[in-house]
Amino acid sequence: MPHPIMFDDADPVLARVREIALSLPEATEQVAHGRPTFRCGKMFAMYGGSRKGATKTPLPTALLFIPDPGEQQALAQDERFFVPSYVGAYGWLGLELSAESDWTEVAELLDASFRQIAPKRAVAQLPISSGDAPRP
Fold first, then answer.
1. 17 CB contacts (<8 Å, ≥6 apart)?
2. Is 114 helix (H, G, I), strand (E, B) or coil?
């Protein structure tokens, strides 16, 4: 039995996430477990989720992502971020979004998550980030 759809395609916050995520090279969207996921081979982001813990209160506008390893500890200490159910055990974090979110920050989080899972050919199409070594 397929999962029920747990998002509204007309959600303006999802539209912003889609715009950013799908601008990354070779990125695609696929609905999995009833939620939009963004992939480049492997999944680098999911829209919607819940906090890890006894009560799994749905957070329909949360962005789940793989933080840059060098920033994970700092992000985990920031009260805006949370450990999500299911994928949190694999190092993922979540951030609740709204129309007033810092979309530059969201783009940076998606970029960092993408760089960790995308094939080298896709990452090579991105501008060099401050954390990257120069390319030969």
1. 36, 38, 45, 47, 63, 97, 106, 110
2. helix
Residue 121: pLDDT above 70?
Answer: yes
Q: Which among 66, 117, 68, 124 has a CA at the least distance from the CA of 95? A: 66
Which residue's structure tokens are 């060098």? 70
Measured distance CA(130)–CA(55) in Å, rounded: 38
Confidence of residue 53 (pLDDT cuts 50, 70, 90): confident
pLDDT tens-place string over residues 94-116: 999 999 999 999 999 999 999 99
Statement: residue 59 has pLDDT above 60:
yes
Rounded Cα distance between 98 and 16, Å, is 10
CA dihedral 33, 38, 42, 44 (to 10 degrees): -110
**HSE-up (13 A, CA, CB side) for residue 70:** 5
Token pair for residue 98? 């709204």
Domain boundaries, the chain: 28-72+109-124
Report yes or no on whether pTM surpasses 0.90. Answer: yes
Which of 61, 62, 83, 63 is CA-nearest to residue 72? 83
